[in-house]
Amino acid sequence: MSTPRPSLTLSSTVLDAPDAAELADFYRRLLGWETVQDEPDWVKLLPPGGGSGLGFQTEKAYVPPAWPAPSAAPGDQLMMLHLDFEVTDLETAVAHAVAEGATPADFQPQHDVRVLFDPVGHPFCLFVNEEAPGEPPAISPEWVAEQTREIAEQDRLTVQDAVAPDPAAPARQAEPDTLT
After folding, report:
1. Does residue 100 sit in helix, strand or coil?
2. Average pLDDT for residues 98-108, to the nearest whole number?
């Protein structure tokens, strides 16, 4: 006999930051959302039309994620999630985000998506939901094959090295499927 599923509603996605109030202020200006909770080390924003919001909590040990993952050094905090915002005018939205304190990422994966970093380093995307004219997306089958070849050629960390590393050996990148 299974237990009945309780009613679950996504209230918000919560982002850690060195200062919750400062990061919440960036997103409030970026999105035009209202602050509905403002406590020490915790702020919550909600969109004017209702729906799930964004929460921000102070985390003194916060470390910005490395993005894209191939640029990460061993041991770097990798991105665990990101926010996507649909826009009608990509150039205008990017200009607005930059004016509010965002930084465009060096690597842009597609012509109709812009990856930016908020003031504490969380990646987020601005995208248009229509086929944009111009060059094909940067992520092509050829690019994926090239990245796969480069990753395969790199020296990989074995499970044995992860469990009992040789302190004299140079640091190597972990291979995800050998550590499970």
Report:
1. helix
2. 93
